[in-house]
Amino acid sequence: MGGLPTENTPSALALPASQPNQGSAVIKSGLDTKPKKKICCACPDTKKLRDECIVEHGEDACSKWIEAHKTCLRAEGFNI
């Protein structure tokens, strides 16, 4: 029985050591594409135009502004 915990301990230690390396690789690649702002604060100009158009004319008439806002959000790193 004394051998079992010793065998489990190195494997348990090896798993966390490998996970942070994988996690740091994900984090490093994620920094390039991760948005720097909250989605509610990104692209205020296109958001305002989109919202005003929807209120005045309805969503169906505002596809131009909706797409412009989506394009802006994608440029900011959001996956829309």
Automatic annotation (TrEMBL):
Q: What PROSITE patterns does the entry give? A: CHCH
**Amino-acid positions noted as binding Cu cation in the UniProt annotation, renumbered to this chain:** C40, C41
Q: Name one GO cellular component term.
A: mitochondrial intermembrane space
Name of the protein in question: Cytochrome c oxidase copper chaperone
* Similarity remark: Belongs to the COX17 family.
> What's a Gene Ontology MF term here?
copper ion binding
Q: What residue spans carry the Polar residues bias annotation?
A: 1-11
Keywords for this protein: Chaperone, Copper, Disulfide bond, Metal-binding, Mitochondrion
Q: Which domain of life is it from?
A: Eukaryota
Pfam short name (any one): COX17
Q: Where found, per UniProt?
A: Mitochondrion intermembrane space
Q: What is its main location?
A: mitochondrion
Q: Where is this region: Disordered?
A: 1-28
